[in-house]
Design goal:
Blueprint: H1 35-38, H2 40-56, H3 65-71, H4 75-79, H5 85-88, H6 96-117, H7 119-144, H8 149-157, H9 164-174, H10 180-201, H11 204-224, H12 237-260, H13 282-291, H14 296-307, H15 310-331, H16 335-360, H17 378-397, H18 410-435, E1 440-441, H19 446-456, E2 471-472, H20 475-501, H21 509-521, E3 537-540, E4 547-553, E5 556-559, H22 570-583, E6 587-593, H23 595-603, E7 607-618, H24 630-642, E8 645-649, H25 656-673, H26 685-688, E9 694-699, E10 705-716, E11 719-730, H27 744-759, E12 763-770, H28 789-813, H29 815-822, E13 828-836, H30 842-853, H31 859-871
Parallel strand pairs: 5-6, 11-12
Antiparallel strand pairs: 1-2, 3-4, 4-5, 6-13, 7-12, 7-13, 8-9, 9-10, 10-11
Helix pairs in contact: 2-6, 6-7, 6-9, 7-8, 7-9, 7-11, 9-11, 10-11, 10-12, 12-15, 12-17, 13-14, 15-16, 15-20, 16-17, 18-19, 18-20, 24-27
Length: 877
């Protein structure tokens, strides 16, 4: 049943389909010659921006206070009746860097948006989001004083200028008719970034920008229309990982923003005070502490000395950099990254709770200088607790998405290397500090330096409850004192990033690597490469020459295809695995196996039934001639006339322009189903990401991907003799300016057969058509002993149930349509079977098969599936 969703798939929406799917040019459409002429409004706005800057003398330092009060958004200007500022604020910036950044943003985002939306719709979206975003932002500013007087006052007297407001607003409005992939990514990314800027930066412009994003999200459908795909949130596991990674990365960028911005004032900008310059030198602080060791000036001076300078600032930022590295691991689905991210959020929660206890429960001292706030209150103490709590909830709720493991021994080697690196760094620090002890106030001894080393690795804010053993007084000592921790964290981040770049394998990475090696050196069935996919466990034959891939679900040991190994030991492998499963209390079930395994299990007295129809093209004398191949020849001829070519790529090394389009096409398909992507023997994007899997794409002269297929190797005695079709998707919508090539699947399969035949392959398998059979009434049934009459009866009942299920699910998955489509190539048909020793276990086996294919289906998705079946919606092919 590995081809439940591998028919000729319609993955697009309206005729006004996404430009982001065209040639990897992103969600904004293709760049064309004469881009300024195609974007007259944004070109005029760039000109107006710089003319206003030059005329008003605002290029270097932004508008003067007097001018800002007359062109910028703010509560004070509005109190004076300057309503026009809601519009004019978008034509000024705060300085030269801001003007350059705004110009880049307009050219990179606003101009493509105008071409995509049309000038009139773009102007409408920009003006409405600029004005309503300003009004909503001012409303938030007025309410902020009720919960945070300090932040509210900054917002009340602040003035906001900059074109980012209408750019962000127009972008969010434009997502309404984008495809699923980029609509989700842009919305999640923009909202995560703008919320982070508002909560950590906290300037009025940040609040207004967030408000504009919300307004754009609300009015998008009214301005540009709604995508035919709708606002579906169902996506692949791969895309879910990307979205979670975006959220976690935004949570890490917030503290960094607060740390680096001298004007950060948001409710989460408590870290801003950590990075101000020191008011005293080290000798002055030592003098203050000698006079009053417990005095506020002494403690404040020690804290500021620890926090001042480039080194301490970078050290304070390194945990956030580490979380960014973990976010990249989350994007890749790594379980270690998930564990690390959860641990980071738990630590932040613990520190927030400790801070609360220090301040309000007198757990340590009522005079804590934590976060450096002169006037801490309950609100400012509790708000930092909310951010890690929210991220922790997101991570826990999405735990199942992160199940990718590194190869065996990766983290053992990483831990060993990290430990060695730490020991070497400690030795260098102790030796260097001993040689430079003249520059260390307090004359530390070697034991003191050893004891101090762990503190050098900790961001200085977390050391405020500990008195420093000594302080540096010269440049060399300062370098050792402040930069040792930075070097440690940089090495830690580099090491963790290295583990994420290691190839991903199954849950038991050692067994998965062993199984892959045996398969590549031995023999297998057309499905055997699927045994290398994640989620499988492995039983190896006693002589170590073969294996069976399986997964245990509800007490059923469900295999993936035939045993891999020597064909003359097939029976031994079947019997050995059955005994192994029985020993563990499992019911063995060989699923999607060939006739060879079925004959072995029949001899053992097992029951069995056909579950799919394998379609095979024998190569060597392939010729798409004659009337019966008319559709195939038409596809090949149309491709030639349309400038469509078939190109082999490997997904891990393919250009981003290709892989992004493949991902977008796949996401549209999953979103259209409203169901989670299936697994088990159904390959998705994760299974494409394998250097041994070949991907054939249909691309035109503009590098637009019109269709994609993936092919899995089939080994015999260590040599690839054939290839099996797995992933199969085509574009069927109309990207702006691009005519979609509809017979892409016929073209790709025919091209693959011709190309692989030229390489010497013996056959290509078009994979199975599950729950569909070729009518062959005279086909003899497998012989069964008289003792198994009851088993045969139950098997026939289940066979009838599967036949009914195939007819019922046809409107959703098109099993029989898939078989009919593959019949265009007039293949050879091979039955695929499911065999089992105990017919009484058939209900459990059926449940296990369903859970294997849909392990993550929710109740709501199940209800939608039933509704779709009842309504009889016909799948487009």
């Amino acid at each position: 049943m590995r081809s439940i969703r591998k028919r000729e798939t319609d993955v697009s929406g309206s005729s006004d389909e996404l430009a982001e799917e065209a040639a990897g040019r992103g969600p904004f459409g293709a760049w064309r010659v004469g881009g300024l002429q195609a974007s007259p409004v944004t070109a005029a706005l760039v000109l107006a921006l710089w003319v206003a800057a030059v005329v008003s003398g605002s290029v270097l330092h932004g508008p003067s206070h007097h001018l800002a009060q007359r062109v910028g958004i703010g509560i004070v200007p509005m109190e004076h009746g300057r309503v026009w500022t809601l519009l004019t604020a978008g034509l000024w910036c705060t300085g030269l860097v801001a003007y350059v950044a705004a110009t880049v943003l307009i050219v990179a985002v606003a101009m493509p948006l105008e071409r995509r939306m049309g000038s009139r719709r773009f102007v409408l979206a920009a003006v409405v989001t600029q004005v309503l975003g300003g009004v909503l932002g001012l409303g938030v500013a007025a309410l902020a004083r009720l919960v945070d007087a300090g932040w509210g006052f900054r917002l009340h007297v602040g003035v906001a200028v900059g074109p980012s407001t209408w750019i962000v607003g127009a972008l969010m409005a434009a997502t309404a008719d984008m495809g699923t992939l980029w609509r989700r990514r842009i919305r999640v990314g923009v909202l995560a970034l703008t919320i982070t800027l508002a909560l950590f930066g906290g300037e009025l412009q940040d609040v207004v920008r967030l408000a504009a994003a919300v307004v754009g999200l609300a009015i998008g459908a009214s301005v540009v229309g709604r995508s035919a795909r709708g606002d579906r949130i169902v996506g692949t596991r791969r895309e879910g990982r990307v979205l979670v990674a975006i959220v976690v990365a935004a949570s890490a960028l917030g503290p960094m923003l607060a740390a680096l911005s001298p004007h950060a004032a948001g409710p989460l900008a408590v870290l801003r005070e950590l990075f101000r310059g020191a008011q005293w030198t080290a000798p002055e602080v030592r003098a203050l502490c000698d006079a009053a060791p417990t005095g506020t000036d002494c403690r404040q001076g020690l804290l500021e000395l620890r926090l001042s300078g480039v080194g301490p600032t970078l050290l304070a930022l390194m945990p956030s950099v580490f979380v960014l590295v973990l976010a990249d691991g989350l994007r890749r689905g790594r379980r270690f990254a998930w564990i690390g991210a959860v641990g980071a959020q738990v630590v932040l929660l613990a520190l927030a709770l400790l801070n609360f206890g220090v301040r309000y429960l007198d757990a340590v001292s009522p005079d804590s200088l934590y976060y450096g706030l002169a006037d801490p209150d309950v609100y400012r103490t509790l708000v930092p607790f909310l951010a890690p709590a929210a991220i922790l909830v997101v991570l826990l709720a999405t735990r199942d998405l992160f199940d990718v493991h590194a190869p065996a021994g990766t983290y053992r080697r990483w831990a060993t290397a990290t430990a060695g690196f730490t020991v070497v760094l400690a030795a260098l620090y102790v030796a260097g500090a001993w040689l430079a002890r003249a520059g260390l106030d307090g004359g530390p001894t070697v034991p003191t330096l050893i004891a101090d080393f762990p503190e050098r690795l900790v961001p200085p804010v977390y050391l405020q409850w500990f008195e420093p053993r000594f302080l540096p007084t010269d440049a060399v000592a300062t370098l050792l004192y402040e930069w040792t921790g930075v070097v440690f964290w940089a090495g830690l981040c580099a090491g963790v990033a290295w583990t994420f770049l290691r190839p991903a394998v199954g849950a038991d990475s050692a067994d998965a690597a062993r199984a892959r090696s045996l398969l590549q050196a031995g023999s297998g069935s057309p499905l055997s490469w699927m045994t290398t996919w994640r989620g499988n466990s492995y039983w190896f034959t006693p002589d170590g020459s073969g294996y069976v891939a399986y997964r245990v679900i509800g007490g059923v040991a469900l295999t993936t295809g035939d045993p891999v190994g020597r064909p003359d030991r097939l029976r031994d492998a079947v019997v050995g695995f059955a005994e192994y499963a029985a020993h563990n209390g499992w019911v063995p079930c060989f699923y999607s196996v060939t006739g060879q395994v079925r004959r072995v299990t029949d001899d053992l007295g097992w029951g069995g039934l056909q579950v799919a129809e394998e379609t095979v093209l024998d190569l060597g004398s392939l010729a798409f001639t004659g009337k019966r191949f008319q559709d195939v020849r038409t596809a090949l001829n149309r491709a030639r006339k349309s400038g469509i070519s078939a190109e082999w790529v490997r997904f891990p090394t393919a250009p981003a322009a290709i892989t992004d389009q493949i991902a977008a096409i796949s996401e549209e398909w999953v979103a259209d189903k409203g169901m989670p992507e299936m697994g088990f023997t159904l390959g998705g994007l994760d299974e494409l990401d394998d250097p041994e899997v070949r991907v054939l794409v249909a691309v035109d002269e503009d590098r637009t991907v019109h269709g994609v297929t993936s092919w899995l190797p089939v080994y015999r005695e260590g040599v690839i003799v054939g290839w099996t079709l797995d992933f199969m998707r085509r574009r069927a919508g109309e990207p702006r300016g691009t005519e979609v090539f509809r017979p892409a699947m016929e073209f790709l399969i025919a091209s693959a057969a011709q190309l692989l035949e030229a390489e010497g392959a013996e056959f290509v398998s078009l994979s199975g058509a599950p729950l569909a059979k070729v009518a062959e009434p005279d086909e003899p049934e497998p012989a069964e002993s008289s003792e198994l009459n009851g088993a045969r009866t139950l098997s026939e009942v289940l066979d009838n149930v599967l036949d009914l299920l195939g007819r019922t699910l046809e409107p959703v998955y098109g099993f029989r349509s898939l078989l009919a489509f593959k019949s265009k190539f007039h293949p050879r048909y091979e039955a695929m079977h499911m065999t089992f020793p105990d017919p009484a276990a058939l209900p459990s086996i059926g449940s296990a098969v369903g859970r294997a294919y849909l392990p993550h289906v929710s109740m709501g998705q199940g209800v939608r599936l039933v509704r779709t079946i009842v309504s009889g919606r016909v799948t487009r092919t």
